[in-house]
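Hi R.,

Here's the chain you asked about this morning:
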Amino acid sequence: MLDTVIVGGGPAGLTAGIYLLRAGLTCALFERQFVGGQAATTNVIENYPGFPEGIGGPELSLKMAEQAQSLGLDIRYDEAERLELAGKVKRLTAAGRTIETRSVILCMGASPRRLQLKDEERLTGRGVSYCATCDGALYRGRRVVVVGGGDTAVEDALYLSRFASSVTIVHRRDAFRAQRALVTRMERTPNIDILRSCTVDALFGEEKLEEIALRDVTSGKTRALPADGLFIAVGMEPRTALAEGQLELENGYIRAGEDTRTSLPLVYAAGDVRTKPLRQVICAAADGAVAASMAALDLGA
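And here is the predicted structure, written out as tokens:
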């Protein structure tokens, strides 16, 4: 039996692993895809302390993983299929095997929210994307559209402006929620066109995306905009399916305070999956450190 199982290999999970191992606890981290989570899909992270010129998201993620593995963290690239969180012994099932543990740190993060348009799923991978840093280079010299008004959307527009011939950013409100510094830089980028108070109403294209329909939220009028690529950045959906019916949730997120303790003993939530006012890499890393420290304290380590 392990002392702790970590579910999710983003900054929260990797930091939790570092702190648990330094506390002398046994643990394993389960990650379904790749370490780093959303941070690993960010081209440049400019607000993580210690990197005056910024650092690539994939590079930072790999450095975190290398540090954790240098301490002996067991990273298993298997998706957690089931969790049993009640009771003194917790259980995680992955790849057909069940692991028993004394405590669990949940760091599943969040996934991109969809626009819920008719042809969105059909055109995903054929012009529709949720990751500018993953797919942006495919649109060199092409016309692309970004949807959203937060930091991610503006960062995506700035990143895509390096490749695309033109970038149009569409936001349903008349003011952006993104940091002022990012918005100012976007406004000064010559090949970025900013459309406020607009929504994407429909997608068109047979084999690939060819055009989108825009709706003016004030007048209700629609117009067509040719587009080779559409990058959707309208928020995240917490990955809490494994915890539903077992833990208290709030708007889909796991209810947990700054001590990361959840509604069940020895179960902790860290990073984007928990209720919190700010979701950034540094906050996720801090959550991981707190969760591991609370687990060590509660286990009597």
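One quick note: The mean pLDDT is 95.

Cheers,
M.
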